[in-house]
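hey so u asked for the seq, here:
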Amino acid sequence: MNLNKAKGLEAPVVFLAGPYGESDHDADQHIDRSGSIAKGYFTISQRLSEHVVELIAQPPNWKALSEKERLFVNAEKDRLLYVAATRAKQLLVVSLYPEQPAKCSWSSLMYNAEHVAELIVHEGEPEGREVYAYQPMLEESMSKLSNQLLEAKKPSYRQVTVTELTKTGAVIPGWSVKGRGQAFGNVVHRCIEAIGNGRVQSSDGETYIKHLAKQEGLKPGLVTEAVVTVELVLGSELWPTSIKAKRRLFEVSMFSTKKVNKAEGLYVKGVIDFLFEEDEGWVIVGYKTDMFESESEEDFIRFYSPQVLQYASEWNQIFGYPVKEAGLFFTQFQKYVPIRLEESE
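ran it, structure tokens below
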């Protein structure tokens, strides 16, 4: 470790090794640090051989500048020497070069220090180390380690979304119309949330949807449909009802835990599309932008009901808020379908 890295460190015993310093060379640069802005002065040289360098050019008054640089360098050496001498808490061992003290980095520390004793080097052979003569049980150790790694890899919890939890084992309805993709739903949900929270005026909905479409990668041909879908939600009976409510929230993330067994927990996460609070309790709403024929409506209600009912249950269990109603809003038909809360029992 060099002295610069040793700054700020301490140890009970410190050895100052390497009792040979750099040779003293003439300065080839000088930095004037006296003003608010440092100024640099440099010489220009060319190397003629390994040990011969020819000076080509130097700044005016270079002799005086060179002497200033030498004084600065020597002062810096003194500062580093102070660092070296003050790292030890109990014992400082200094390596010296008695034959050529001028080349020794630590000679200055020994000035007028004749009373400092030399380190006693004990003679004799070091104690021999005990030789391990037993046969190592590598197979047994590797087997034990493998079992420990397998045990460590076993999951202590599982993470699942509400959508995954409620759709497991559910009968998937047959989509009779081609879907518009996840990007379409994301754009619609984000625009409704922005308008509902007052960040975007409803009159600016189309402009905002075009902005979201670029972020979500929505096909340009679906932008108009997204605008119409948002307008259908804002024009529904559900929207003015929510405006009159005590509180209303959009895109609320929730996270809860369920115990599957003694060793494993299940972490359930999801996002509630829309909810608002009335006198009797909260209303939980799930927006659905699926495209389907009207005769398939019951299939989609059965498919999505467990999801919104799960959100209603979690909202009540996590925060203790009473839930008055849960429902699905199908944007295609501008229709809100309430779901009986008893179905979640």
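The chain is about 35% helix and 25% strand. The mean pLDDT is 85.
lmk if thats what u needed
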